[in-house]
Design brief:
Blueprint lengths: L10 E3 L3 E5 L2 E5 L2 E3 L15 H4 L3 E3 L4 E3 L7 E4 L3 E8 L4 E8 L5 E4 L19 E10 L4 E13 L6 E13 L10 E4 L15 H8 L5 E6 L22 E7 L7 E9 L7 E2 L1 E6 L2 E2 L4 H4 L4 E3 L6 E3 L1 H15 L8 H4 L23 E6 L5 E7 L1 H4 E6 L4 E6 L1 E3 L6 E3 L1 H4 L2 E6 L4 E7 L1 H8 L8 E2 L3 E2 L17 H56 L6
Parallel strand pairs: 9-14, 10-13, 21-28, 22-27
Antiparallel strand pairs: 1-4, 2-3, 5-6, 7-8, 7-16, 8-9, 8-12, 10-14, 11-12, 12-13, 15-16, 15-29, 17-30, 18-21, 19-20, 19-23, 23-24, 24-31, 24-32, 25-26, 29-30
């Protein structure tokens, strides 16, 4: 599943075109740049996280503690995590996918064979049609529909309701997933990537502007690290996979959901939740690439994408390094496993978890908010080897949860990585926080954890400016915009040709007239001189 928007802010610089016509040099310079629209965010009073952890979330009508927001999201491996919302008057209950990689709030508004219910806007007395068509393509799937507004409530926030922009999905392609149990998507990104444009206020902006809820939320998604009491992670021959449980804290943090110190990465920009990756290690060995390679053309934290996605060169490097670690223990891993096209189904394992022992940990280093420092996310094999079940052969299998990015989508820290951590989206202070999740603690107690549990290190010094690792989009190349720029330049040139021809004709005519005039004068002077020479000399 990959519901990150294929959006890239591009600044295209078209080189000057020099065209010479009849020794006249014409230079046409065209620059094309995408427009940036900004919707001001509501900014509350400055507070430290110590003040928000475990405190009540204040709204216009009720007080809700973050303690009451535990286990309010559910998910299924590979199909995303969702939260229950009430929409309209009277309320209609729907489940929506939690997606930090997009910014539109959209729900099904017509029947579909992959969903059990949908939003009936004609039955809501508070629905308002905005008369705007919206279409959102993702790197996987797309949907289109009509933009409107209605009252929305999040069940775990009590009876608090607010007016939100809602896209009523009337058509979709490869968007709704069988057995996913969600009927819409909750985009939690910034206004800049909202569709059709940034004038559409995103869900979380509406929530914080209409209530006194602080501009922060956090996600704990347990996934592969939950105990067997909380989930049955692989599909079974007896039925579909069970759901996993997690928590979404809105307006504050729950200290009981993480261990140790929270480490923060600064937001590079407010569109996606973009951070900067400074290095990747397999086991103890760095991939050794220029750090700009890791962030080509961005690195984002995206709950709506299942896998860890990496730029092609980085994907090839990390895959080769993992192969080198595992080949001596598991020489028969099919090549299609590494590309995600096939499952790995061990036949001689004494335990369905044994392959975890032969795969290395991965370490993702991120820029820290502490100047001149970075911190590490240590990723367990349990996270990037997703358990799956082969119904045909009735085997426990594994799927490689690292994939190459497509269409310059950049690096995506998806759900399989986030599942090891308590992840904080501190919009008010423009940073993303990571701490070790309490989810692994459950499986440690029951003895079901295998391999290295996810870890997070303290911030450490680096001898370079991490900001230099960010990809410079100001020199990015977009063929479509470049072609448009050249077409406009050609139109300008066509318009200039008549002016140039007229100017040249005028100059030529002027010079020709001047030459004819000088020719008459010279001829007259020669005639006079000739007459003078032929006259008789009157001197004695």
């Amino acid at each position: 599943m990959h519901f990150s928007l294929p959006t890239s802010r591009i600044v295209v610089v078209v080189p000057a075109a020099a065209i010479c016509i009849v020794c006249v040099l014409i230079e046409t310079c065209t620059a094309a740049r995408s427009h940036v629209y900004t919707i001001p965010l509501r900014k509350g009073k400055e507070t430290s996280f110590a003040e928000t952890v475990g405190e009540p979330v204040r709204t216009n009508q009720v007080n809700v503690s973050v303690e009451e927001q535990k286990n309010n999201i559910r998910g299924r491996p590979g199909l995303g995590y969702y939260i229950e919302v009430d929409i309209g008057t009277p309320p209609q209950k729907l489940n929506v996918l939690i997606d930090t990689g997009s910014s539109n709030f959209a729900v099904a508004a017509s029947s579909h064979n992959a969903i059990s219910t949908y939003y009936r806007r004609n039955e809501s007395s508070t629905y308002e049609d905005q008369g705007t068509y919206v279409k959102v393509p993702y790197t996987q799937g797309e949907w289109s529909g009509d933009l409107g507004q209605d009252l929305v409530q999040i069940a775990s926030l009590g009876n608090q309701s607010f007016q939100a922009n809602i896209a009523a999905i009337t058509e979709s392609k490869m968007f709704f997933l069988n057995d996913s149990r969600w009927q819409g998507i909750l985009g939690l990104g910034y206004a800049e990537i909202a569709r059709p444009d940034s004038s559409v206020e995103p869900f979380f902006d509406s929530l914080t502007s209409q209530t006194s809820i602080q501009d922060i939320f956090a996600l704990q998604m347990c996934g592969a690290l939950a105990s067997t009491n909380d989930t049955n992670l692989g599909s079974s021959a007896d039925g579909p996979v069970e759901e996993v449980i997690g928590s979404m804290n809105i307006g504050g943090l729950d200290a009981s959901l993480y261990h140790g110190t929270m480490q923060y990465a600064p937001l590079r920009d407010e569109w996606f939740y973009e951070v900067i990756m400074t290095d990747i290690r397999v086991g103890n060995d760095s991939l050794g690439l220029d750090c700009k390679e890791y962030n080509f053309d961005k690195t984002i934290v995206d709950s709506g994408t299942t896998n860890l996605r990496l730029p092609v060169r980085v994907f090839e490097a990390i895959t080769n390094a993992i192969k080198a670690h595992t080949t001596k223990h598991m020489p028969d891993v099919p090549s299609e496993f590494w590309t995600g096209m096939n499952l790995m189904c061990p036949t001689d394992s004494t335990s369905p978890y044994e392959p975890y022992h032969w795969f290395p940990t991965l370490t993702l280093d991120l820029q820290s908010t502490n100047q001149g420092q970075a911190f590490s996310l240590v990723v367990s094999p349990q996270q990037y080897l997703r358990r799956d079940y082969d119904h045909e052969d009735k085997k426990n299998c594994f799927k490689f949860a690292i994939a190459p990015s497509t269409n310059h989508a950049g690096a995506v820290i998806g759900a399989v990585i986030m599942e090891g951590f308590y992840v904080v989206f501190d919009r008010e202070n423009k940073r993303v926080g990571f701490a070790r999740s309490t989810c692994p603690g459950a499986c440690e107690k029951t003895g079901t954890c295998v391999g290295n549990s996810p870890l997070i290190t303290e911030a450490f010094n680096i001898d370079f400016d991490a900001s230099d690792c960010g990809y410079d989009r100001s020199t990015s190349y977009d063929p479509a915009l470049t072609i448009t720029a050249y077409v406009l330049a050609a139109i300008c040139l066509v318009c200039l040709i008549p002016v140039i021809v007229f100017a040249l004709t005028h100059q030529i005519n002027k010079r020709c007239k001047g030459r004819r005039g000088r020719g008459v004068v010279n001829h007259h002077r020669l005639d006079q001189e000739g007459l003078a020479e032929n006259e008789p000399n009157s001197d004695p």
